[in-house]
Amino acid sequence: MSRIAAKFDELKIQGRTALIPFITAGDPQPDATVDLMHGLVAAGADIIELGVPFSDPMADGPVIQRASERALAHGVSLHDVLDMVRKFRERDPHTGVVLMGYLNPVEVMGYEPFAAACAQAGVDGALLVDMPPEEADEWLKAARGHKVDTVFLLAPTSTADRIQAVAKAASGFVYYVSLKGVTGAKNLDVDEVAARLAAIRALTSLPIGVGFGISDAAAATRVSRIADAVIVGSALVRLIEQLASEGWNPSRLDATVYQLLRDMRSGMDFAGG
Predict the structure, then answer these.
(1) Cα(42)–Cα(63) distance, integer angstroms
(2) Which pLDDT tens digit goes with each residue over 172-185?
(3) 20 to 30 Å CA-CA from 261: which of 138, 205, 219, 230?
(4) CA-based nearest residue to 224, from 266, 256, 262
């Protein structure tokens, strides 16, 4: 059983919802990422979503776009990201790690070499934003051969046919984009999300994580009542950006980035999620 599946099974028994923070690998500087990952786990992360820097992150809003730009300015590559996960695994053999990124760097490396490298480094899953399930056969064959989960996105506009296609191809969990737009967008309608999740659950037994538009503990708490996982990215990356602009000092993470995650975890647990 994968780390991702094991974690969701564990949380289901406990009656809790997974908390999945996102950060961009190499932001604000390459040597900060592994310590950030450990800090997120200590603050309540159940699974970590690690962004692979890319020059044209089409699904991401300005905050995460700038994070990619900062990482790329340091020359951070897909190989570097895999090395970061490998180093993270030296101290943490349990927490699931999902790489979120875009197809181009993976195609350059090759599907089979990338899947093998993920397995060797300790990566548990990959979310390739611009790979639809209809074009994923070659990747899915490589990923399944190396026991790497493939996470797909669903959106408010996804049809029943698209939901079925994702349900057939996905493993680990399904990522539901809670609103139309890019990461960091606002106007989260929890009732609308709940209705969409019910339709998705009718077609898949996979856990469903909800992301986009979750910026504070109150939003995380509301979403935790209806989802299997709460995914938070821009709110954390924005705090990292602010700290970097003031002169990077890791000691300040506890009162900012980690405190936000602790507040989310506390609210979710209090709500029974």
Answers:
(1) 24
(2) 999 999 875 544 44
(3) 205
(4) 266
